[in-house]
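Changelog-adjacent note: as of this version, every example in the card shows the full chain rather than a window. The one below runs 146 residues end to end.
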Amino acid sequence: MPDLLRSGSLTLLNIGDELVLRNASRAIVDTVIYEGGVITGTDWIGARVNPYSESVFRIEGQIIYRKRDQVTGRPIADTDTVADWAQTSDDNINGKKVLYSGWDLDRYFFAHQVTQTANITYVVAPDAMRHSDNREGKQSKQCGIL
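Full-length structure tokens:
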């Protein structure tokens, strides 16, 4: 927020907190409640945001952030609910995300796309089977495991 004015310091607890953004007349503009934060007195609706914990990634140090639109990369519309946040575990496309300080979210948000014509042959077989080139009946010199 380029026009944000604040004084003092900002400290958020690792065990949970609430962050409430107010305008000049003290009306609530936006809210996020995470982990053990207090919902009372905010415009937040429903469950709190929790770091994504259903993976090998550590919870400590995760940065919670808003889900992004898959077309534009911009944050999705704000609903003041946990559904706005990329750490939700019930969204297989835009949820289940982890971010730490130093990770470049903007650089890797969109998948790299390449347009190239290629012929690919997939062979599914037991591990011990020799890979063969079916066109010439020869054993392949190169083998790729997917």
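Structural remarks: The chain has one domain: 1-111.
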